[in-house]
Design brief:
With 124 residues, this protein is α/β, with parallel strands linked by helices. The chain is built from two helices and four strands; from the N terminus they run βαββαβ. It has a single domain, classed as 2-Layer Sandwich (Macrophage Migration Inhibitory Factor). GO terms for molecular function: isomerase activity.
């Protein structure tokens, strides 16, 4: 926890430094939400090969960050995280000047049934 999924348009493939974004995102999450540590963050990236935005005119790209956290955080905390993540997205996509970048963030609660396990590293 948290689980983070970033859908990004193929048009951002070359200009979007995903690993750099994830490292900054994990630090930001730990600084913004009590109970989140950098070590607990997990981010997956999913390139969207095709997206239709508005009237399907060229020159548009999308990026959407879905942030799932344990229940119990209030709206002010989620809103602060959402705004901070959106600012980070904007900074990391600023070099994509050939397209209008449509950026969004959704902060949601994990289900009450969420469970996880981390297997320890074993000697070979």
């Amino acid at each position: 926890m948290p689980h983070i999924l970033v859908d990004y348009d193929e048009a951002l493939q070359e200009s979007f430094d995903r690993r750099g974004f994830a490292r900054e995102l994990h630090k930001l999450a730990a600084e913004t939400v009590d109970g989140i540590t950098v070590e607990s963050c997990k981010t997956r990236f999913r390139r969207v090969d095709e997206a239709v935005i508005a009237h399907d005119e060229p020159g548009h790209a999308l990026i959407h960050v879905e942030f799932a956290i344990l229940p119990g955080r209030g709206t002010p905390t989620k809103s602060a995280l959402s705004r901070a993540v959106l600012d980070l997205v904007r900074r990391h996509t600023a070099s994509a000047t050939a397209v209008a970048v449509h950026a969004s963030v959704d902060i949601r609660d994990l289900s009450e049934a969420y469970a996880m396990h981390v297997a320890p590293v074993r000697d070979r």
